[in-house]
Amino acid sequence: MSHLGAPSTELAERCEPAGAVPTATADRASVDSASCDHDCTAARCGDGYANLNAGEQRDPVFHTNADPGQDSVNCDNDCTLPVCGDGHVNAAANEQCEPPNTAKCEAACKSK
Description:
The longest helix has 5 residues, at 60-64. By secondary structure, this protein is largely without helices or strands. The chain is elongated, with a radius of gyration of 18 Å. The model is unreliable at 1-12 (pLDDT under 50). The chain has helices spanning 28-31, 60-64.
């Protein structure tokens, strides 16, 4: 069995993180890279962990126990925060339309 951060061909270990293996939860973000989580798995939206270095702002599975690929009240299905004007209608966050300030959509992403 290999250890995180050591060369490996094991199926469970998919990549190498950016730094030394973290010793505490708070250290995880310093080891994450754009393509690899601290636990040597590939960074992806919906894996239950928000890897900020991979552009994830939240993860729907971790923050809301939502199914991967689903919007939640505080997370879009692409692991970004739900923001009116982001081009994505997140009904769980009470958005009804995009883009805002148009003939059919008010400033707060509510239908006119």
